[in-house]
Amino acid sequence: MQAGQAAQLERFKTRLYQTFEKGRREHKLAGVGNFAIVIHKTAAWTVFTSGPRLGVHEELSDELLDFVLAAKLDVFLEMYGGENHQPLDVPRAIRERRLAMQGDLNVFLRFLRINEAADLLSIRGAQAAPKLAG
To answer: In Å, what is the CA distance from 80 to each residue of 75, 86, 90, 104?
Structure first.
């Protein structure tokens, strides 16, 4: 992994923790749902917004989750775009098996809204994505 890619992942991780902490402080986590973000062979985070494991964990949990987003590193870096960001073609990335989503996407979107974190992860075009299995 290149230094710039590692820096993007670190920024994402930092913002994930910041968003969680803001939600906890402001009591906005109730009803959000639990989710995971997986970057194939690179990193994984599971966010529990309720229950005994409340917090951000740097691992993929085997517990039942409301939403999981899994992506290859290149797709994730496109989604969490750099300065020349272009919207990701979500249906194409799914067809090419470079991106997968399972469960209720709104769980993740509710989490993003805690911090109005449009920059946390851009999933523009998600409305055009095929119906998610759940």
So the answer is: 8, 10, 13, 20
Based on the structure, what is the number of domains in the chain? 1
Domain that holds residue 74: 3-128
Asked whether residue 133 is assigned to any structural domain, the reply reads no
Of the candidates 68, 64, 67, 69, the one whose C-alpha atom is nearest the C-alpha of residue 79 is 69
Task: At 14, list the tokens.
Answer: 């930092």
pTM for this predicted structure: 0.80
User: Which domain CATH number covers 65?
Assistant: 3.30.1050
Q: pLDDT grade, residue 82 (50/70/90)?
A: low
Say how far apart CA 31 and CA 40 lie, in whole Å.
28
For 4-28, write each residue's pLDDT tens digit.
788 888 988 998 999 999 999 999 9
Average pLDDT over residues 68-87: 79
User: In the beta sheet, which residues pair with residue 100?
Assistant: 70
